[in-house]
Specification:
Elements lengths: L5 E6 L3 H12 L11 E7 L3 H11 L3 E3 L2 H6 L5 E4 L6 H10 L3 E5 L6 H13 L4 E4 L6 H11 L6 E9 L22 H4 L1 H12 L3 E10 L4 E5 L11 E7 L5 E8 L4 E7 L8 E8 L2 E6 L5 E6 L10 E4 L22 H17 L11 E2 H19 L5 E2 L12
Parallel strand pairs: 1-2, 1-4, 2-3, 4-5, 5-6, 7-12
Antiparallel strand pairs: 6-17, 7-13, 8-11, 8-18, 9-10, 11-12, 13-14, 14-15, 15-16
Helix pairs in contact: 1-9, 4-5, 5-10, 6-8, 8-10
C-alpha cells in the first residue's frame, strides 16, 4: 500500500464499471484541494475482452480477470466494486481485510444478512468503506434538498417519484443475474434503491413505514444468451428460455417522519424511457421538481406570487447551485451536466476522504455501509408489503445520517 500516492482499480467492466473508471480519471481535476497523485492501475472483469478494452480506453496500466488479483496487488489502494449484487460481500470483505479502501455500488448486497456482515467488516476495518448513492451528487437534486432544508418550501407535504427504464422491455433481452433472485430484487432493487434514498435525501427525513407495495413480473421468461452479457447490452440468444424470478415493475407509498407522504413507482420495461428519473416535492410554501432528462434545470413554484405571474418557473442551474463552481471544466451558467458527472463528484469525495482532506474543504462524504443496509431494509419492507397484499410495514432501522447540503 502506497503512502505517497493512490493506486486505483475497478472490479467490473460493465456500464457502471466504465463510469467508475472514467470518474477516477477525471476526479483529480475537480476543485482546488490538493490530492496526492492518483495512479490508474487495473480494471478487473471475468470477461477478459471487456477488462482489456476498458483498461485501454480509460488509461489504466493493466487488466485482470480475477478480483483476487486486485486484493493481492500491493500497488492498489482504492477499489470500486461494480459487479453482481450477490458477489459484493465476498469481494468487499477480502478487500477490507487487505487494507484497501472500497467504494461499493448500490445496492450493498442481495440479502440483509450479507449487508449486515459487510457493515461489521467496514466497522472493523482501518480503511474507508463507502457505498455509491450517485444521484445525491446531481446538482439539481441537491438543490431540491437545499430548498427544503432552507425552509423555502416550508413543511413538506408530499413527495412523488418515478424511475422508469426500458432496458428489459424487449422480451428477447437475455436472461442474466439481474433477472434472478427473490421478490424485490429486480426493478425495485435496481432502480428503486435510487428512488427510495432520494426521497429521504430530498425531503430531509427518513421513511418510517411503507404500504401498498406491488411487485409485478410481466415478462415471465427470457432466452439464454449465446455470448457474454456485459452490463445491459444485447447479445445473440438461443431458443432456450429461463424463468424470470423477480419484478419488472414495482410501486409503493411511504410515510416520512414529520407527517409527509410519498408515492414511488419504478419499472425496467417502460418503453421509450431509457432513464427517466423524476422527483417532485410539495410543501406548504411551494413545490420543486427535477427531471433527469433535463439535468441542468429545476422546476420551482412559490406560493404568494402575484396572481398574474403565478406559476411554475424554470431555474437554470449554474455556479450558485451545488457541485457546479470548480466541479466542471466550464463552471458557467447553462453548461450541460448529467449522470456521468455524478460519478466524478462521488469519486472525488472518496479520494478527498482517503487523502485526509478536511470535511469543511471537501465534498460531502459518500454514504457509509450503514446507509446501504438501511436501504435494503427499506426495500425489504416494500417486498413484505407486496407479499401481504399491500399491508403497512414499519421500516425498522435507524434513521440515516444524511449529509448537510453544500
Amino acid at each position: 500500500m502506497s503512502t505517497i500516492d493512490l493506486g486505483v482499480a475497478v472490479i467490473g467492466a460493465g456500464m457502471a464499471g466504465k463510469a467508475h473508471a472514467a470518474a477516477y480519471r477525471s476526479a483529480p481535476t475537480l476543485y482546488r484541494a490538493a490530492l496526492p497523485p492518483v495512479r490508474l492501475v487495473s480494471i478487473a472483469d471475468v470477461y477478459e475482452p471487456a477488462a482489456a478494452d476498458t483498461a485501454a480506453r480509460f488509461g489504466y496500466a493493466r487488466h485482470d480477470t480475477d478480483w483476487r488479483a486486485i486484493v493481492e496487488a500491493p500497488d492498489i489502494d482504492v477499489v470500486s466494486v461494480v459487479v453482481a449484487n450477490a458477489l459484493h460481500r465476498e469481494i468487499v470483505e477480502a478487500l477490507l481485510a487487505a487494507g484497501k479502501h472500497v467504494l461499493c455500488e448500490k445496492p450493498l448486497s442481495d440479502t440483509i444478512e450479507d449487508a449486515q456482515a459487510m457493515v461489521e467488516a467496514a466497522d472493523a476495518a482501518a480503511s474507508v468503506a463507502r457505498i455509491g448513492l450517485t444521484y445525491r451528487r446531481s446538482p439539481g437534486l441537491a438543490y431540491l434538498r437545499e430548498l427544503v432544508s432552507s425552509g423555502r418550501l416550508g413543511r413538506v407535504y408530499h413527495v412523488s417519484g418515478r424511475y422508469w427504464t426500458d432496458y428489459a422491455h424487449d422480451p428477447r433481452t437475455p436472461i442474466s443475474w439481474r433477472f434472478k433472485g427473490p421478490a424485490g430484487s429486480g426493478a425495485l432493487a435496481d432502480v428503486g434503491s435510487h428512488l427510495s434514498y432520494l426521497v429521504e435525501f430530498v425531503a430531509g427525513s427518513e421513511i418510517t413505514a411503507v404500504r401498498g407495495g406491488t411487485l409485478s413480473t410481466v415478462i415471465p421468461e427470457r432466452p439464454t444468451p449465446l455470448g457474454a452479457v456485459s452490463g445491459r447490452g444485447q447479445v445473440a440468444v438461443s431458443d432456450e428460455l429461463e424463468a424470470v424470478e423477480n419484478d419488472d415493475v414495482a410501486s409503493f407509498s411511504a410515510e416520512l417522519a414529520g407527517g409527509a407522504t410519498a408515492d414511488l413507482a419504478v419499472s425496467r420495461v417502460a418503453a421509450g424511457h431509457p432513464n427517466t428519473l423524476v422527483v417532485e416535492v410539495h410543501g406548504e410554501k411551494g413545490a420543486a421538481s427535477f427531471d433527469f432528462r433535463h439535468p441542468g434545470e429545476v422546476g420551482l413554484f412559490v406560493t404568494g406570487d402575484d396572481a398574474a405571474e403565478a406559476g411554475w418557473r424554470t431555474v437554470v442551474l449554474g455556479p450558485a447551485h451545488p457541485y457546479w463552481r470548480g466541479g466542471l471544466p466550464m463552471d458557467a451558467p447553462g453548461v450541460g451536466i448529467g449522470q456521468n458527472e455524478g460519478f466524478v463528484f462521488q469519486a472525488r469525495a472518496l479520494l478527498d476522504e482517503i487523502a485526509g482532506v478536511p470535511e469543511s474543504e471537501a465534498l460531502p462524504r459518500n454514504a457509509d455501509f450503514g446507509e446501504g443496509l438501511r436501504n435494503l431494509i427499506l426495500l425489504d419492507a416494500v417486498a413484505r408489503s407486496a407479499q401481504g397484499g399491500g399491508a403497512r410495514i414499519a421500516v425498522d432501522s435507524p434513521a440515516p445520517s444524511l449529509p448537510s447540503p453544500r
